[in-house]
Amino acid sequence: MSLFLKTYCQIKEGEVHINGELFCQHMDEDPFLRSIYKHIGLTYPKFFKMDALSQLGFLGAEMTIMRSEMEQYADDEVAVIYSNRSSSLQTDQQYYQSLKSGIASPSLFVYTLPNIVVGEICIRHKLFGENNFLITERFDAKQLIDQCEALFQDEAAKAVLIAWTEVNGEEHDGFFAFVTASGMNEVTPESLTDLYLGR
Amino acid sequence: MSEVFIGAKSVLCPLGDTPSKVYEAMLNGESGLNAVEKPFGVDTTSQIGLIPDHLIPQEHMDSLRLTNMLAACYERSVRKLRFDTFQDKGGLVIICTTKGNIDKIGQPDDPRLPLGRLGRFLQQSFDLANDPMIISNACISGVLGIITAARLIRAGKYDHIMVLGGDIVSEFTLSGFASLHALTDDVCKPYDKNRTGINLGEAAAGLVLSNDETIFKGTCDEYISGASSNDANHISGPSRTGEGLYRSIDRTLKLASISPKQVGYLSAHGTGTSFNDEMESIAFERSGLSETPVNSMKGYFGHTLGAAGIIETLFGLEGMKRNQLVASLGFEEMGVSRPLNIITQTTAPSSEYFLKTASGFGGCNAAALFKLG
Q1: Chain B residues close to A85, C-beta within 8 Å
Q2: What is the least distance, in Å, from the CA of A27 to any CA of chain B?
Q3: CA–CA gap between residue A139 and residue A194 (Å, rounded)
């Protein structure tokens, strides 16, 4: 079966690219993710409660979904499937430090699951569709595309927001793609890998 | 839709290490939960479900508890197949876990800490043809692993998929649930008036899904359909209307073209927290499942997180096969606002269809339907 790419977005090394075009660069004094938040003119106070993984995944979803003609889908026809290497490890370590300092932080503990970012996106965009969070050692286009195909064949979704979201301190590696069951721009695991690698 | 078969059960849990022995203990009303003084240094009186150390084989690649648990289940499930199919490209292993080797969190340089490494150890030890897929989607990881496996088989991506679920009890998870005030002060009482929270338990369990029923040495059952749905409501609290769970069940039954009345047994999530159990009762009523025999297995081995969906599906299938569904341990007096037909003594399912559901943090919910083989 053929799959199609509607929009893609990359957040990496202080730059945001949308559909291959430079969208914004990290120039101001704010941390990178906060500067993107400001750049896109978002007003969403919950953003500031999120951990870094959720902030990265949330911003990528925001910019990708805005350009993907969401109005044509029912509220349960868009699935969200995210992936990364380290799960929520950075927040796990922050929670563990809070525990060792004597006060285990419940607000940090809630973010020690990688799929919380998917929940944040579903709340923001009122998406009642399918979810999944996959852990792979590196960006694995085949696993993500297989998931889309399996969902489309089961008629469980008509479009899927897939993503790779890895955070390590101030290093961000986010790649987001809106994949549909019908469209113009065919996508394969190979072509998606090329886009991720900027080839 | 093409047929998907499910079987080759393996388990390691506080009540034992074979499906039949554990199920017999459950039928006898035994619980694997025990009081431990300050477990893992955490100040709680909540009982926990630990696998006795002697049940965890140590001959595997490293000293990590979870890895050894998963490896043991892999080997036992493979022994129930006519051949080891995971060493060729048509076979895949899916690992469902929320926290992986979280007991290494105090050693940040340990290369086994990142979750992505968990699959590599199994791949190398067992010479797996494909890298294992790891699903980490909170407490629905196990059910979602089963649904994902069935979909990948139906889409023609693989012929046989082993779904392994596993999580350990650790200082990390115990202290975290304690900080959320989610732990019960003793033992959990799902759906009961006096329920106060969850117990944590550790387990690993395996099931194999395949497009070929002849690969199983013993009997197998059938996977019919499944779906997941997000509440789009709150990241750590269940929806007041049970929206995502209701939608998951509704889609699952519609895909199977059966009515709620035809479901003969419902294995629910039933964690024993006030909000979860109440939410489920609302979703089940909306789904037309108020009269379906239902239980929660959390009283037998606690909430086993990423393993929960696999181990509870496994024992649900075991109960269907034996025509003996276990009582919902810990339940005495109705404590949710909507009617439920909670199993209070060993009973027979009312049809050959078995529905498994789960809900978790991040607002996620899943349902999967099986038919007795």
Answers
A1: 114-116
A2: 32
A3: 11
In which residue ranges of chain B is CATH 3.40.47.10 found?
4-215, 221-371
Q: How far is A17 from chain B (nearest CA, A)?
A: 27
Tell me if B114 and A128 make a contact (CB, 8 A cut-off). Answer: no
pTM over 0.95: yes
d(CA A196, CA A194): 5
CATH class of B221-371: alpha beta
* Pair B69, B204: CB distance under 8 Å: yes
Q: Which residues between 3 and 62 in chain A have a beta carbon less than 8 angstroms from any beta carbon of chain B?
A: none
Chain A residues 81-120 with a CB less than 8 Å from chain B: 84-87, 89, 92-93, 95-96, 99, 104-106, 109-110, 112-116, 118-120
Per-residue pLDDT at B59 exceeds 90: no
Q: Which residue has the tokens 């209070």?
A: B344
Domain B4-215 falls in which CATH fold?
Peroxisomal Thiolase; Chain A, domain 1 (3.40.47)
pLDDT at B58: 80
pLDDT at B62 over 80: no
Q: Which two tokens stand for residue B125?
A: 């030890």
Element (H, E) at B298: helix B298-301
Amino acid B170: pLDDT: 97
pLDDT digits (tens, 9 = 90+) for B281-313: 999 999 999 999 999 999 999 999 999 999 999
First to last CA, chain B: 17
Would you state the structure tokens that stand for residue B284, as one six-digit string?
Answer: 């089940």
User: Chain B contacts of A128, Cβ < 8 Å?
Assistant: 229-232, 243-244, 247
Q: What is the CATH number of domain A3-197?
A: 3.40.47.10
Give the pLDDT mean for B178-182: 97
Tokens of B69: 């648990």
Q: What is the mean pLDDT of chain A?
A: 96
ipTM of the complex model: 0.97
Q: Report the chain A residue with the minimal C-alpha distance to residue B363.
A: A119
